[in-house]
Amino acid sequence: MRKIIAWGLVACFVLVAVPLTLSADERNPVMRHAIDLAKEGKYDEAIATIKKVMESNPSASNLEAHLSLGLVYYKAKQYDNSFSEFTKASEENSDSAMAYYFLGLINEKIAIGRNNKQEEMALKYKALESWKKYLEISSQPTCPGCPIVPFRHSLCPNEPI
Questions:
Q1: What angle do the packed helices 2-12 and 117-138 form, to 10 degrees?
Q2: pLDDT tens profile 125-142
Q3: pLDDT in tens, 29-67
């Protein structure tokens, strides 16, 4: 039963979360460059670039940087660092569906490698809770009658240009 739920959540991700990732138009040029580096497998360079962006303006909101850094760490299989960045993103913006999706994914990956069944089940439960939060956020419009999920709200047809 739990496998069915997990696969159902994965299917939801494919249908809903993939469009939620930041498009190239929504990132600043330096962040775009960092993501391009990550796509080329140059994770260390991408991480250094994103950290420079964060250090250059420490008082600004770093939601995009935390999400991007979390993704790069995830691709580099540095799950502890990735978890930390997605946690920071969820703390900075509790409506960050992408952060909750990846927190669930990381908990599931960590759970799979556990020898202790109790720890494994606790991590899987955390994964399910994160995915529930992700589904709650991603299914809620941010303004009355808005068909656009929160992460892409800049495209809302109900907002004036």
A1: 40
A2: 999 999 999 998 887 655
A3: 888 899 899 999 999 999 999 999 888 877 666 888 899
Residues 72, 64, 35, 13, CA torsion sign: positive
Write out the two tokens for 6: 């997990």
* Rounded Cα gap, residues 111 and 119, in angstroms: 7
Q: Which of 65, 66, 77, 76 is nearest to 38 (CA)?
A: 76
- What is the model's pTM? 0.70
Q: Which domains does the chain have, with CATH numbers?
A: 2-155 (1.25.40.10)
pLDDT value, residue 32: 86
